[in-house]
Amino acid sequence: MIVTRSEVRPFQQDELDLMKGFADQAVIAIENARLVSELRESYRVVQEQAGKLETQSQELVKLNQQLEQRVADQVGAASNICAAVSGIALSVRLLSAYSR
Hints:
Helices cover about 85% and strands about 0% of the residues. By secondary structure, the chain is mainly α. The protein has one domain. The chain is rod-shaped, with a radius of gyration of 41 Å. The protein starts with 12 loop residues before the first helix and ends with a helix.
């Protein structure tokens, strides 16, 4: 901050206090601008990360659906095998009973 006057004489205390107040306000404004800039950058990074997390979440949902389908298919296959084994066991018992 540069302060000039048309005549050469010392500044009075109230003038110095006023200039100091202006300088203090300038420092605060500069610091606030820096903080706003940091905040905007942080927000941009958070938004970017949120987008990545959303993408990963959607991929996990798809993988989970695929896994659920595989498990359901395997449970169905196991159920069919159990039914077949039960049928075979029943056939063996019946054959054993008729062969006596």
